[in-house]
Amino acid sequence: MVTKSDFLSAAESIKQKLDTVSPCLCLAKWKQVSLHLTTGMNNSCYHPPLHRISVEEIGRDPGALHNTSHKKQQRKMMLRGERPSECQYCWNMEDLGQMSDRHYRSGEPWAAIDFDKIAGSTGEEDDVIPGYVEVNFNHACNLQCSYCSPQFSSTWMDEVQRHGAYPTLVPHNDPGHFSGDRRPIAAREHNPYLEAFWAWWPRLYPHLRHFRMTGGEPLMDRNTFRVFDYVLALPKPDLHLNVTSNFSVEPKLFDQYMDYVKRLCATNIEHFMQYVSLDSGNPGHAQYIRHGLQFRRLWDYVHRYLTEVPYRNSLTFIITMNNLTVLGLQQQLEWILDLRKAYSTTYQRVWFDTPVLRQPAWQSLQILPPAYTGIMERVADWMELNCSESGDSLHGFRDFEIQRLRRDIAWMKSGHAQDWTQARADFYRFFSEHDRRRGTDFLATFPEMRQWWADCEYHAKAT
């Protein structure tokens, strides 16, 4: 397996190759796609905003799920040396002197393998087949994560249909917004995007290197198990099969899932990656951020997974870096080190990623006072002291993990000069209503943020 130091080296190497074609080239625009089949939306990674997939185009060729007219235009811009505005996050990181996800993703084997072909392309080809596909089959979900929306959670949809929008300056998650072509297509209804996906699947599958199922909650969707059945029937030796879960589903459903995972990992695939969404090591914080999450159950499921599936697999925590994550971050990383010591013997089985949350603005790291940046910097310094390059190669932090957190801190600092009055006011408005609707208590959960809460309350009442 590729080590993380190799991963960082690959990103640095591909950066030089990309620059020989264009300083704006990102191979993910060709080789990666995230498909939201419940709403007919698409993007290449999670940074650009989602854009609409044409029903007419997929009627002619289901491959247009990936090769949309919009995406072709962005590819042409990159080849011409122009920066697409939808990729602003990466441009911001690069302007701060950081490696961006453009480099990391382009350096991965599933993307880098087609560098020469992409370098010589026009950007308008219809037959580009991605190597990394992420798909959301269904918005059914048992959680109401604070930063999520009815597009990705049926539980969120039920709430706003009962209680209406949240009283932020621009009403948040207004049920009227999720109507017409923005309304998630229910599993019982005809879905042309889902139909096109299964029509495309036999052509797509032989080229896949990574296939990742997200949600909603994938363990609650029958299409997840349809994919599993297909892979069991037609094993693929180079396939990395990935699933993102909240690990809070009922035990009977988790038992069914584990049975499939064991069989998949015993057959002829390269690797099974279990992504687990968790934003704090403090149980109260984690359950507040991701409402409905059961921390004790998640803890038990993580240990079951790592114990019962001993081969061809690993687990990655997705820590969505928002302003309620900061105080419990080191606690979560300490737990990750403990898991590495317990379960990583011949190869690394426990990973984590720290993508930053940019929307909604009131949960952004950037709106916090500078003192919170100091907390983050101390966490990064502590990670340096526990770096695997200076000790145990499997049980410490890798250079690239530390660099990613430093990148998040740089992004956090870049917002200090901006006026966040409205976002702070909305923070108070949103979480006050959150507490009223859901029976939660912000100050009881985050007593260390009492002064921050008071400041946000002041802004809310003054605007």
- Which structural class is indicated by helix and strand composition? alpha/beta
* Mean pLDDT across every amino acid position: 94
Instruction: Kindly estimate the percentage of residues that lie in beta strands according to DSSP.
Output: 5-15%
Give the helix level as a range of percent: 40-55%
Strand neighbour order, sheet with most strands: 3-2-1-4-6-7-8-10-11
Count of discrete alpha- or pi-helical segments spanning 4 or more residues: 20
- The beta-strand count equals 11
Give the C-alpha Rg: 22 Å
Shape: globular
Poorly predicted regions = none
Distance between the termini: 54 Å
Tell me what the structure shows.
The structure is a single chain. Among the domains are: 4-135, no CATH class; 423-463, no CATH class. The protein has helices at residues 4-21, 28-31, 55-60, 69-79, 88-95, 101-106, 109-112, 115-119, 154-163, 192-204, 222-233, 251-265, 283-289, 295-308, 329-343, 370-385, 399-414, 421-438, 442-445, 450-462; strands at 32-36, 41-43, 51-52, 132-136, 144-145, 210-214, 240-245, 271-277, 290-291, 313-318, 350-353. The model has no long low-confidence stretch (mean pLDDT 94). It is of the alpha/beta class and 463 residues long. The chain has 20 helices and eleven strands. The chain has a nine-stranded mixed β-sheet with strand order 3-2-1-4-6-7-8-10-11.
